[in-house]
């Protein structure tokens, strides 16, 4: 399985009154990890969007286990957990500097035409992405 690792430095504005990373910021970090994984596989969303296709989130979840604080560096690990040619589920783990698991999560996505939000088959419209996703799950 191909796993991307992306480091994120916790910025002050990402913390809450308790001094820990505000929960919604982990969702942003998931997106950073997902984008980097896609780039690692040789693709990017800009090319997809240039063809009139976007990839909305249809489900997302996160489980919080250990807080991160301002000034720390988190490591976001991202992989393709499930792919069926239509729907992609990305898995995420966020680790503290001392490699303790802080957050786990997943997000589900489909590709749709930007003009009407009708779903498309990734396998049919983006065969190179399809091949790379399948390979990434096998590695």
TrEMBL record:
<comment type="similarity">
    <text>Belongs to the 4-hydroxybenzoyl-CoA thioesterase family.</text>
</comment>
<dbReference type="InterPro" id="IPR050563">
    <property type="entry name" value="4-hydroxybenzoyl-CoA_TE"/>
</dbReference>
<dbReference type="InterPro" id="IPR029069">
    <property type="entry name" value="HotDog_dom_sf"/>
</dbReference>
<protein>
    <submittedName>
        <fullName>Acyl-CoA thioester hydrolase</fullName>
    </submittedName>
</protein>
<keyword id="KW-0378">Hydrolase</keyword>
<dbReference type="GO" id="GO:0047617">
    <property type="term" value="F:fatty acyl-CoA hydrolase activity"/>
</dbReference>
<dbReference type="Pfam" id="PF13279">
    <property type="entry name" value="4HBT_2"/>
</dbReference>
<dbReference type="InterPro" id="IPR006684">
    <property type="entry name" value="YbgC/YbaW"/>
</dbReference>
